């Protein structure tokens, strides 16, 4: 895969939606677990696989993530 293709893949998910690729994987896994536990999909999709549905929801902006500050950062900001 070319470098441009990799950049296009990253752009598909948008810089605001994710902190990094690790966050994408963690978020998609969490959403997939919700779907497997009975949560309804937030959009129409052709896939029956929870992981694919979760990735599609993230890609289209139906699911967003908030990166919470670490407890250490919160304690330091209180000083």
UniProtKB/TrEMBL annotation:
Record GO biological process: DNA-templated transcription
Keyword Kinase: no
Alphabetical keyword list: DNA-directed RNA polymerase, Nucleotidyltransferase, Transcription, Transferase
Gene3D superfamilies per UniProt: 3.90.940.10
Pfam families: RNA_pol_Rpb6
Catalysed reaction equations from the record: RNA(n) + a ribonucleoside 5'-triphosphate = RNA(n+1) + diphosphate
Gene Ontology annotations for the cellular component aspect, listed alphabetically: DNA-directed RNA polymerase complex
Enzyme class (EC, first level): transferase
Molecular function GO terms recorded: DNA binding; DNA-directed RNA polymerase activity
InterPro entries from the UniProt entry: DNA-dir_RNA_pol_omega, Pol_omega/Rpo6/RPB6, RPB6/omega-like_sf
Regions that span the bilayer: none
EC number: 2.7.7.6
Family from the record: Belongs to the RNA polymerase subunit omega family.
Protein name as it appears in the record: DNA-directed RNA polymerase subunit omega
Organism: Terriglobus roseus
């Amino acid at each position: 895969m070319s470098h441009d293709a990799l950049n296009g893949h990253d752009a598909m998910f948008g810089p605001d939606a994710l902190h990094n690729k690790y966050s994408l994987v963690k978020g998609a896994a969490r959403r997939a677990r919700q779907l497997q536990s009975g949560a309804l999909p937030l959009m129409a999709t052709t896939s029956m696989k929870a992981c694919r549905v979760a990735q599609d929801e993230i890609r289209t902006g139906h699911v967003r993530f908030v990166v919470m500050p670490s407890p250490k950062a919160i304690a330091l900001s209180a000083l």
